[in-house]
Amino acid sequence: MSWIRKTAAEQADALAAGEVTSVELVQAHLDQIAATNGDLNAFLHVDVPGALAQAAASDERRSAGSPLHALDGVPIAIKDVLTTEGLPTTAGSRILEGWIPPYDGTVTARIKAAGLPILGKTNMDEFAMGSSTENSAYGPTRNPWDHDRIPGGSGGGSAAAVAAFQAPLAIGSDTGGSIRQPGAMTGTVGVKPTYGSVSRYGVIALANSLDQLGPVTRTVLDSALLHELIGGHDPKDSTSVPTPVTGLIEAAREGAKGDLSGLRVGVVKELQGDAWAPDVVERFEESVDILKKLGADVVEVSLPSFVHAMAAYYLILPAECSSNLAKFDAMRYGRRVTPEGSPSAEEVMKVSRDAGFGDEVKRRIIIGTYALSSGYYDAYYGQAQKIRTLIIEDFRRAFESVDVLVSPTAPTTAFPIGEKVDDPLSMYLQDLATIPANLAGVPGISVPSGTSREDGLPTGVQFLAPVLEDARLYRVGAALEAALLEQWGGPIVPAAYQSKESS
Amino acid sequence: MTEAKLAGSASDRRPTLIDFDTVLESFDPAMGLEVHVELNTATKMFCGCPTGFGAAPNTQVCPTCLGLPGAMPVVNGKAVESAMRIGLALNCEIAEWCRFARKNYFYPDMPKNFQTSQYDEPIAFDGYLDVDVDGETFRIEIERAHMEEDTGKATHVGGTTGRIHGADYSLIDYNRAGIPLIEIVTRPIMGAGEKAPLVAKAYVSALRDLVKALGVSDVRMDQGSMRCDVNLSLAPKGSGALGTRSETKNVNSLRSVERAVRYEMSRHAGILLAGGKVLQETRHFHEDDGSTSPGREKSDAEDYRYFPEPDLVPVAPSREWVEELRGTLPEPPAGRRTRLQAEFGFSDLEMRDVVAAGALDLIAETVEAGTTPQAARKWWMSELARRANDTGVALDEVGVTPAQIVEVQRLIDDKTINDKLARQVFEGLYAGEGTPAEIVAARGLAVVSDDGALTAAVDAAIEAQPAVAEKIRGGNHAAAGALIGAVMKAMGGQANAARVREIIMEKLA
């Protein structure tokens, strides 16, 4: 069995046992990328020499008996939203074409400090705006389960890369579901940590008060390993919380033992109904039954303000991003388009922004600019912030009676490429279940819950926990994962990417 | 819109200026002063870059102050402390909880195309500063003092105006981007009447002294570390109303503040008396003739879309911290002036001149170093003031220390030199020729008291002016001055004048 089939934890163990070198691991993944990225477009940039050099350095540390971290030498992919010194970083936008950041984001720096070779940068919806990765200026990423379908978004690149064995680990960013929804679409695990527990320094901001980096992996344990590596306080991020990020790996190992007795699980009443595809609901109910069998105490809880979450989100996010994206003016970096004649700086800004931004980005800049305008601020942005407070209050009340909340991650399975590009509202609905966590800052995880009886595509189940209780997600997620793996007889893998050796 | 602008600019080319006294017959002025103070913190407002003045362009920058994608701000605690101390010195309340906001607008010298600034939640608010104008005290109410960051500095090359429109290209130095600023905003200052220009000047002057005493800024208006915007409006006399205001930006000397208020009063009156409407707009001040000209028109279209900066957590200074800082406040400048005037025994007139010349601190330091207040005042207000004026530098930059002045005065007191020779010692000090004693030695400036040399010189003078000698012999002792002058001239000013007089009297009386 090829090394790429192994989980990150298994690869780390093999490195520690001397069964494989980091160079061999990196080369195996680079080979897979070379063989499959033409179909998938999961990577926007692959750093072959850099990854191999970092792998060689890792191997030297191993043979000297001084690895930097348990994951030293295990390759990783990074969503193109996080700065990487010397590697292109575009956030999926034409306006940053050719920009090479002069600095590492904090998470990049932590990955380097732990010795993980960086394979490259993964595709995403432009500035993380979208739920399908179709809004990337560099073409859509395709779902490994069906190349005619979307892999979810905005982090479709990271999810597809992990699902297709191009990388065992990837970094995603989640503003309204961009880690979790692609996880559900591709049969992978994705975690949005508690807001402030992973540094945002170096993340090209979509909506600063909602964004959070997190792990994208094939197993719950791998997510825990990566989450602990990237988490923890960062003085460069003022919104970073000082609490150490620990106990996640332990919680995942504990959960995998399959005992959930005493755990109170709340099924969210507002995240059910007609919007949810029957085959998604079927898998969801099956997962809930498993939780019960494992000893969890399952009840239904109501979080009434969730029905307003989408509206609040689509005011707060555009407001913040309209301001964040103002810096892309072609004056200091990025792609500049200079009109004929002797244009003023203002004209260069205008033309460059018009050429550099895609339609969805422009749409949100316009909405956000409007929502912040004098005379409208209170009615839109102010009102949205009040809803946000109500949602935080809903979570607080719900977590008085349950330990975690559960819902399907996304309302449907992966839809065909092109189906929703002209229908932004239906695209936005993809994030119905994931947005409340971002508004309240609570952590969430998406775990594969099987494949649809109807179309054979993966579905996901989402757990949410109170702020800084990320460990609960790993416990319950690992328990469900273990039970499902036993039921399936192994992980669910897209047909085109199944191991030829084992089949 | 276009017509309004054209009409505005046409009238601005030749504004009708109304005589100041006539303005006051019909109108009450109201002023609002916005003063930006650049803090002297070692690092910038939101990043660790150094703030030193005069470094090569774009060498004191990082991802944060350049606004690179992904970079984030972190508040400089020292800047918050300085802001709170300014607030406390201005008798303000200090917010228990406040936030930064984003002020959104596009401009090439703005790295992020928004300025991170406090908006409706300032760190300090509801204070006042009392200022004295011709013996009358005006209480200037402070609406707020808030924290913000400076922008980059643009230099527009080519074109005629030095502004961005019409320039061939622009150079931008981001060293200044992110330097911490405190903006201090007054409530409308009303009721100053004819004294309005002087009140404005006195306020800015008092604020400068206060901030300087706090040690949180260099407050150099000439270097831009203190900048003033003057809002002015006129209302019909006695109405108590507020008229439409103009905002004259970057009025950067005390004298200019006074002139800008005066000019705008005359200009507004010219418009209003002709039945016109004052445009709400920003204006540029011209140092050469004290006039103003239109900048951009302020309209409803200008909407900064303020919202709380989501990358920064709120600033919530504990009450303990506030009280601790209150304990660090220096003696208020006005109280200190009163105390020093009494201690030094200066007359009101002397004190006013000393303060106006910016010499009070220097005199106080010189007295501290060991000489009398009158001696300290004499040197700072005459010789050194002249030197500062001649060389175009501030009084504290003439290159003479209080200790050196004390030494010069001691040489006079022990009669080694006289006042006239002392000026030559100062020449030596400006030239860096060493200590006053070394300069006296090197330049051979010591007064001659040797009777042999003096007697010879007196004899020569008597021989040259027999008529004068005869008058003295006849009892006209006042005539001795002519002989003393001749001896001093012959000896290059280095004669001990008292001894010369004695020798003359011995010989002729």
Automatic annotation (TrEMBL), chain A:
Catalytic residue positions: K79, S154, S178
Keywords, ordered alphabetically: ATP-binding, Ligase, Nucleotide-binding, Protein biosynthesis, Transferase
Gene3D superfamilies cross-referenced by the UniProt entry: Amidase signature (AS) domain (3.90.1300.10)
Coiled-coil annotated spans: none
Taxonomy, superkingdom: Bacteria
Catalytic function, reaction form: L-glutamyl-tRNA(Gln) + L-glutamine + ATP + H2O = L-glutaminyl-tRNA(Gln) + L-glutamate + ADP + phosphate + H(+)
PROSITE patterns linked to this entry: AMIDASES (PS00571)
Quaternary structure (record): Heterotrimer of A, B and C subunits.
Function: Allows the formation of correctly charged Gln-tRNA(Gln) through the transamidation of misacylated Glu-tRNA(Gln) in organisms which lack glutaminyl-tRNA synthetase. The reaction takes place in the presence of glutamine and ATP through an activated gamma-phospho-Glu-tRNA(Gln).
Family per record: Belongs to the amidase family. GatA subfamily.
Protein name as annotated: Glutamyl-tRNA(Gln) amidotransferase subunit A
From TrEMBL, chain B:
Stored Gene3D superfamilies: 1.10.10.410
Entry keyword set: ATP-binding, Ligase, Nucleotide-binding, Protein biosynthesis, Transferase
Single GO biological process annotation from the record: glutaminyl-tRNAGln biosynthesis via transamidation
Family: Belongs to the GatB/GatE family. GatB subfamily.
Catalytic activity: L-aspartyl-tRNA(Asn) + L-glutamine + ATP + H2O = L-asparaginyl-tRNA(Asn) + L-glutamate + ADP + phosphate + 2 H(+); L-glutamyl-tRNA(Gln) + L-glutamine + ATP + H2O = L-glutaminyl-tRNA(Gln) + L-glutamate + ADP + phosphate + H(+)
Superkingdom of the organism of origin: Bacteria
Name of the featured protein: Aspartyl/glutamyl-tRNA(Asn/Gln) amidotransferase subunit B
Subunit structure as annotated in this protein's UniProt entry: Heterotrimer of A, B and C subunits.
NCBIfam families documented for this protein: gatB, PRK05477.1-2, PRK05477.1-3, PRK05477.1-4
UniProt-listed InterPro entries: Asn/Gln-tRNA_amidoTrfase_suB/E, Asn/Gln-tRNA_Trfase_suB/E_cat, Asn/Gln_amidotransferase, Asn/Gln_tRNA_amidoTrase-B-like, GatB, GatB_Yqey_C_2, Gln-tRNA_amidoTrfase_suB_CS, Gln_synth/guanido_kin_cat_dom
Described function: Allows the formation of correctly charged Asn-tRNA(Asn) or Gln-tRNA(Gln) through the transamidation of misacylated Asp-tRNA(Asn) or Glu-tRNA(Gln) in organisms which lack either or both of asparaginyl-tRNA or glutaminyl-tRNA synthetases. The reaction takes place in the presence of glutamine and ATP through an activated phospho-Asp-tRNA(Asn) or phospho-Glu-tRNA(Gln).
Spans through the membrane: none
Domain Asn/Gln amidotransferase per the UniProt entry, residue ranges: 361-508
EC number: 6.3.5.-
Organism field: Nocardioides terrae
HAMAP family attached to this UniProt entry: GatB
Gene Ontology MF: a single term: asparaginyl-tRNA synthase (glutamine-hydrolyzing) activity
